Amino acid sequence: MTLIKDLNPFNPGSGGSPPYLAGRENEQGRLMKILAEMSAGRSPGADMVMYGPRGMGKTVLLNWLEIEAKKASTKDNPIRTSWTTPNKLTSPTDLWSYLLSQDWKKRLKPDELTAGLGALSATWESKGAANQVLENTLVNECKKSPLIFLMDEAHTMDAGLCNGLLNLSQEIRREAPFLLVLAGTPGLRHFLSTVNASFIERSNKIGIGRLDAQATADAIVKPLNEHGIKIDDNTLAPVVEDSQHYPYFIQLWGEALWDLAKEKELQKLTSQEVTAAKTRVDSVRLDFYGERKDKLDDLGLLPAAIAIAKVFQDTETTTRDVLKKVIADNLPVDSLTTQSVNEHLRTFIRHDFVWRSPQMTLYEPGIPSLMTYILD
Ligand SMILES: Nc1ncnc2c1ncn2[C@@H]1O[C@H](COP(=O)(O)OP(=O)(O)O)[C@@H](O)[C@H]1O
Ligand SMILES: [Mg+2]
After folding, report:
1. Quick one: pLDDT at residue 114?
2. Which of 81, 221, 245, 267 is the most exposed place for a label (fewest CB within 10 A)?
3. Residues within 5 Å of ion ligand 2 by Cβ?
4. Reduced to 3 states, what is the DSSP secondary structure of residue 89?
5. Nearest to residue 52, comparing CAs of 199, 153, 163, 150?
6. Rounded to an integer, what distance in angstroms lies between the CA atom of residue 82 and that of residue 100?
7. In terms of C-beta density within 10 A (0-12 exposed, 13-18 middle, 19 or more buried), how is residue 165 classed?
8. CB 244 within 8 A of CB 367
9. CB of 251 sitting under 6 A from ligand 1
C-alpha cells in the first residue's frame, strides 16, 4: 500500500503525461474550440500542425487531446480518435487501417481486409490520391462519427504517404467532420512545405515551446503539495530558473526533489535538497547534452553551432539573417552558396538546435542551456 502511495508522480522521458500539465491553456483552448465544432458535426477549416523541439510536450498534448475527445464523445454524439506514428505505416494499406473504424474492418476477415485495402489503396502511390471507395467509406463514417486523426512524429513520415494523407484530409474535411493533427519537431514545417507547397499556409499552426516561470513553478509545486511536500517560493526560485522552463528538465527536477523528500522523510524541502537534487539533474542532463553535441559533431556542424551559441550569449532571440551569416562564416569557402547556407540552417532546425515558433518572426535556441554547454 505504502509503496503505491509513494510512487514518484513526476514523469521525465518522452510522451509520459506529467502529474500536472502546466501552462498550455492557450493551446488547450484552441484545441477545445475545434473539438466543440467537431462535436457539433462541423468540419474544421484546416488541418492542425503542432511543432516544437523535443521534450517540449507535443506528445503529452496529443494525449491530452485524445482524452478530451473521448470525454466529449457521447452515444448521440460519438467522436472517434485514431493515433498513429509513421513507424507503423509502411504502406497506404496501413494508413487506411488506422483511418477506418473497427466496425467497418470487422465486416471483413483479416486477410480479406488486407487484400481489400491493399488492392483499393494500390492506386494511391501512383496517383498521389486516395481510392474513391475507401474515401467514400471514410466520409460516411465521419458523418456518423467525426474522426480526429492524430499523427505523432509526423516529420518522419514518408513523403508520398504524407502527400496522400494531406490530399485525403482536404477531401474528407469538405464533406464530413474530420480533423488531422500532425505533431513533430521544428523540421516538420519545412518537411510539409516540400510535400505540399501551400499546405503550411493553410493549416492551423501551434508552436509548442517552453513554459513561463509561473507554469514551471506550478508544474513542480502542485504535485509536491498534493502529496504533502511543501517548498517555499525562495527555495523554488533557483529550480525554476535552472529548469530553463523546459518541460523535460522540469520533470527531472520534480522527480529528484520528490525522491529526496521521500528519502529524508521531509514535509518541507530546503535549499539543501535543492543543491542535492541539482547534482542528480545535472548528471542526466550532461548525458543529454553530450548526445546532442556528438550529433552536431557527426554532422560537421560543431564550429557553426559554437558560433551560433555565441550569438545567443547576448540575446534570447535572433533573426534568420544573423543565423545565416554566422553559418556562412563557418562554412569552407569552396562549399559556400546561398543554397548550402540555407541547407545548414535547416539541419540546425531539424535537430532543434534553433527554431522559430509560428507565433514569432525571430529564432530562439531549442534548449538554451545546450548553447552554454557547447560553449563550455
Ligand atoms: N505542460 C507540461 N507541464 C509539465 N510537464 C510537461 C508538460 N508537457 C510535457 N511535460 C513533460 O515533458 C517531457 C516531454 O514531453 P513530450 O510530450 O514527450 O515531449 P515531445 O513530444 O515534445 O518530445 C515529459 O516528461 C512530460 O511529462
Ligand atoms: Mg513526442
Report:
1. 64
2. 267
3. 59
4. coil
5. 153
6. 9
7. buried
8. yes
9. yes
Q: Which amino acid is at 201?
A: E
- Edge-to-edge, what's the strand order for the sheet holding 48-51? 80-84, 147-151, 178-184, 48-51, 204-207
The set of cell numbers assigned to 289 is: 547534452
Three-class SS of residue 205?
strand
For the CA of 24, the nearest atom of ligand 1 = 1
Residue-wise pLDDT for 120-177, tens only, equals: 455 444 444 447 778 888 999 999 999 999 999 999 999 989 998 999 999 999 999 9
Tell me the per-residue pLDDT of 189-223, one tens digit each, with 9 for 90 and over. 999 999 988 888 899 999 999 999 999 999 999 99
Domains, the chain, ordered by start: 25-207 (3.40.50.300), 211-290 (1.10.8), 299-375 (1.10.10.10)
C-alpha cell at 238: 533557483
pLDDT digits (tens, 9 = 90+) for 229-265: 999 999 999 999 999 999 999 999 999 999 999 999 9
Could you tell me which residues come within 8 angstroms of residue 141 by beta carbon, excluding any fewer than 6 positions away?
80, 100, 101, 103, 104, 147, 176
| Ligand 1 site, residue 28, Cβ cutoff 6 A | no
Instruction: Answer yes or no: is the C-beta of 164 below 6 A from any ligand 1 atom.
Output: no
Residue to substitute in 25, 243, 248, 357 for testing ligand 1 pocket (most ligand atoms within 8 angstroms of CB): 248
**For residue 86, how far is its CA from the centre of ligand 2 (angstroms)?**
12
CA 122/CA 92 separation, integer angstroms: 7
Residues 285, 256: contact at Cβ < 8 Å?
A: no
Atom of ligand 1 nearest to the CA of 10: 27
Burial pattern 52-78, b for ≥16 Cβ within 10 A else e, equals: bbbbbbbbbbbbbbbebbeebbeeeee
CA of 246 to the centre of ligand 1 (A): 9
Contact 150, 83 (CB under 8 A): yes
